[in-house]
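step=predict obj=UDP-N-acetylglucosamine transferase subunit ALG13 n=164
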Amino acid sequence: MKTVFVTVGTTSFDELIETVTTSETVQAIKARGYERLVLQVGRGSVLPAADSCPHITLEAFRFKDSIAEDVKQADLVISHAGAGSCLEAMGAGKSLLVVVNDKLMNNHQLELAQRLHQDSHLLYCTCSTLTETLRTMDLSVLQPFLPGQPEKFANFLDNALGVQ
């Protein structure tokens, strides 16, 4: 069963969870052939019920010791732009769509998402453009991010975030 896994990490990003479970977004997900939607909602106040999205299998949880199995089973990962979540999805070789939380102040998520997008490792959008991005995205343009080089990722983050 083709699966979309959505993660917000340890944060709260209710706007993403609310947006991804709207009927319009679920329709866009279904139109791409996905049949299952798994949500990791973190500290957020929104925890959708299994029957809240008709026509798609929905599972939601707050936290697990590890989301590695959820990432492994996913055909598409939709994530907040946290470095750890991005690295886990890219390291697992998964297609990654990052949703930047544009409501955060002093937000370095956008710089990280833009840089990883420039290098064709992920696609990114905001909650307001998520549905349209799902409708029009071309996952075939994504290039693997080679795992096993943590120092390269650390340098990459330093450069992307302007830390020298």
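step=describe
The chain has a mean pLDDT of 89.
step=end
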